[in-house]
Amino acid sequence: MNNPNKVGLVFGAIMGGWHCVWALLVFLGVAQKIYDFILWAHMIHLPIIIGPFDPKAALTLVVLTTAIGYVFGYIAAWVWNRVYR
To answer: What is the pLDDT of residues 70-79, one digit of tens each?
Structure first.
């Protein structure tokens, strides 16, 4: 049986951590080059420009994705426990 709280914390940490890395890449000024490379490698041409680092936006991004990751992880473990008793 999975503990929904622990699974939620893991999902939240993964989602929040991934977006924390993204915010760090924007802060360091390398996000645009990485994004351009990813699009090039997938043969996609979109005129998207990564904006300047905004601490409030970065904090909002990390907090919300962490919370959403927690909720999805919690729900997934809860459903898993109900289906696979």
So the answer is: 999 999 999 9
